[in-house]
Amino acid sequence: MRVLAVRHHAEDDPGFIGAAFAARGAALTSHLFPKAGPLPAPDSFDHVIVLGATASVNDSGPESSWISSELAWLRAADTAGVPVLGVCFGAQALSVAHGGSVTLASRPEVGWSRIDSVDEELIPAGPWLQFHHDQCLPPPTAQVLARSEVCVQAFSIGRHLAVQFHPEVDGAQLKAWLNAGAREEAAQAGQDPDRLLADTITREPGARGRAAQIVATAIRLATARPAATIIGPRPAPQDSRLVRPRSTRIPAS
To answer: Which residues are 51's β-sheet partners?
Structure first.
């Protein structure tokens, strides 16, 4: 299996997500976009990971022209039948690329928190590391898999999986983020950056296992029959409740 990880900053890394794909025999390639140039043809890969970004998918102007290029590339990946696992900004980009939208969340989510999951075998309740200000309003074609008090935390669109939280991050990566400017952002959100880092390091064993579950779900979605029902009907955008199906029909990996 050939897997492409799209990174947007030098300090970003597929981390636990990349390791989980590698444990399944995947050959992982990373591409720093847009700094390293245009994204490669999506049909050169069997699966794509799109990581986070400090930018909002709604940003505009010359410095943000890469965002529209990435959205077009995600649509091309969908046309080519290449499944995408979107993380944070990657989730927001998937939402917009498929007809949904992204807005400012009612409040930032920064730090470790648990979420309300439709099925914890698909999306564990966590705790997950959150680090975002925007929220996804997924398109009608999406199936919501998890929520928090603030926003949608996970959803699928066909063979694609999107998660708002950061299953990939270990202590080393969070330290790189903090050193690159996220320390002030964390403090503004009410977090002690040093305590957050220590907590992240302590949580690494559990986070590694939960990331592997996310990858298992991504692969199961990618190999599901097109007509398969992933979960029950998606809740209306204004409804904060989750619809819990009687059964989940994702083929076993």
So the answer is: none
Does residue 168 have an active-site annotation?
A: yes
Q: Which of 8, 88, 98, 132 is catalytic?
A: 88
pLDDT of residue 161: 98
61-96: per-residue pLDDT in tens?
988 999 999 999 999 999 999 999 999 999 999 999
**CA triple 32-93-119, angle to 5 deg:** 110
Instruction: Name the nearest CA neighbour of 221 among 253, 181, 194.
Output: 253
**For the chain, what are the domain ranges?**
2-223
Domain 2-223 top-level CATH class = alpha beta
Q: What percent of the chain has pLDDT over 70?
A: 89
**Cα 113 to Cα 110: distance, rounded to the nearest angstrom:** 9
Residue 151 bears catalytic tag: no
